[in-house]
Amino acid sequence: MVSVEAKVLTSQPTIEKPREKQLPPPQTKLIMGGSVVGLILFFYLAMTQTIEKPILFVIGILLGYTLFHARFGFTSAFRRFASVGNGEALRAHMIMLIVAVTFFAPILATGFTFFGGEASGNVNPIGVSLLVGAFLFGVGMQLGNGCASGTLYAIGEGRSVMFITLLFFIIGSTIGAYHLDFWLNDMPSFGAVSLATSTGLGYTGAWLISVLFFGLIIWWTLRIEKKKHPPKMAPLPTERGWKRILRGSWPIIIAAVVLAVLNALTLMTRGTPWGITSAFALWGSKGADLLGFDVANWAYWEGDLETLYGSVFSHTTSVLNFGVILGAFLASAAGGLFQLKKITAKGATASMIGGLLMGYGARLAFGCNIGAYFSGIASFSLHGYIWGVVAMAGTFLALYLRPLFGLSVPKPKDSFC
């Protein structure tokens, strides 16, 4: 006879551990095709351009590979924190910035670069243009469902709607370049402020203040989470062991460190940090010139006609962008995840509006989430900190706008990637 205790034990449901998401097999043909394109472009740059161009192309590929592998987002990080108080990704941003300022401080203090010239950071003015531009960008990246780097790596993974975002990003950036003279000369501006050179702190003092501030942000986000108990980020499909380097997801903190190191390498290679949207202004201005607009007389291009009329392959930011797209493409194909996706009417409309706002805002704010926020703060520029705060304010507004376009907003009981 079976005891009552045994019956109770055998009647208990079996609790199974959640199965780890499996990746589909690598898309070999896509990997081979992307590799061939990459090699052709690398050798073309090596034969026709200065030595830093092919190196920057490789750095761009590594940046794109890293961004995709960790799904390292700026848009989603702001949205998760603003909506439900999840600060996991924001803490990764702070780790990234701690590593970045640690590398940037000695590089900027000595001016060291690999190929001559002097390294200089992204230190830009603080004024009305910065406030308006960062706010517009904060709204735009939530409607466009991706920031500047997010747009590039999403294109690489085949998210079809992001091609629309990119097109209108370029258009908005071009309009911003046309209007920039008004925003700089007719609107109040207080000049550029460097925590290192404008305050007397020097790079050592600026580094210490920066690291303490980033640590404070980490502590603050943990406090917010303790109060709100937000959902955690859902795990992404991945491989185990050494295969994880090439396929699957990377820990977001590892990606943060890699991105900071690659930005420092960019600084030492070309003399300025990583940026993205100046290339969009260039591409759009070239298109406007072909359409008959008098682009050469825009104040934005004054003194830089060589860039305007030169090859895009001689423009270092363009080369980096090409690398980011290819790197994300190779990473998605290696994970078997490249797939063109359906575009809805509401999604396309949001991408148009979001792209325009981001493009215009990036020009006014002297950069995007990379050029102003990441590289600006890493360069000890006060404008980078202000950009982050104001873009977060734009994110809060966008949370009320996203549902109008069928875009989701994280809820306290949701899980999300």
TrEMBL record:
It is found in: Cell inner membrane. Residues 1-23 are annotated as: Disordered. It comes from the Bacteria. The chain crosses the membrane at residues 30-48, 54-74, 95-114, 126-148, 160-180, 200-222, 250-268, 319-340, 352-374, 380-401. Keywords: Cell inner membrane, Cell membrane, Membrane, Transmembrane, Transmembrane helix, Transport. InterPro entries: Sulf_transp_TsuA/YedE. This is YeeE/YedE family protein. It comes from Aliibacillus thermotolerans.
